[in-house]
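Subject: sequence -> structure tokens, single chain

Hey, anyone have a minute? Need the predicted structure for the following. Not urgent.
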Amino acid sequence: MEFKLNNILFFLIALLILSCNNSRKKKSEQELEHSASYVLVKNWPDLPSDFILGNPTGLGINSENNIVVFHRASSVWQEPMSKDKIQENTITVFDKQTGKVINSWGANLFIMPHGLEIDKENNIWVTDVALHQIFKFSSDGTLLLTLGEAEVAGNDGEHFNLPTDVAVSADGTFYVSDGYGNSRVIKFSKDGTYLFEWGKFGNKQGEFNIPHGIDLDKNGYVYVADRENNRIQKFDSEGNFITLWQNQTTDQLYSVTIDNQKNYLFGIDYMIVNDTIIKGSDIFRFDLDVNLQTQFGRTGFYDGPISRYHDIQIDDEGSIYVGDILGNRVQKFKLK
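Reply:
Had a minute. Here:
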């Protein structure tokens, strides 16, 4: 009798283990299938033979869902920074379907392009890390607002130190991640009046080591790509810390963007070993509580070249666009 009971117990335990393994396998397969649902669109964008696309550091989506790219044309990152303005156009609009160039402008305006944001009125906001300035343009390129003093770094309400990105809320107030030289996020009124700031250099909650990218969800929560701390931090509109996601596998997390239609948060990272062996970037998708849902790129489900993604955007169809500063290209991933 005892032998039979032991056999029955062994059988039940084995069945339970098998069931758990199958459950984990099914969950893993579902996650992998979900990860593979983004497909790289070949031969996008469609660039003219004489077009110079430099490091595509900032991406935006305008009201027509076309892709606006802020790039460095023939210029490259150098330290100390150049004093010369880039002579070629640096802001280019691509048709999201065909990838053809719709418009291009921005010559002789910038030294070292970095971040780009498009607000609900189609205004284009950019940061120039060499000029230490923020610029707001209308969609046709008319300058509307300038913040910061050209080529003068600082850490007060009127100066920046290599500012990286801008995020504009529905009411017109906006946030600046500032940046390489300062470790803070600043909030401004609609007309550019300094309101308040938060953050300092460090790795504790609410601290930053290069706040490199920033975006807002439709409820006004602020998401910051804390690059050298390799994490995403989430704050309320007053700068109060809410939560974070810590990337455990690489060294740098470059940028974030929100898909407000589907309530997703996206991020991108970059991995290089011993400063010499380039492993490339991954794309991450989270819910708005910063729980990871999907990851692909360097780690799999990607058949493109090794890349170093600097910025990311999502269009109304759920397609992903990333700016690769390693290959000087913009990639589009279509949602199946």
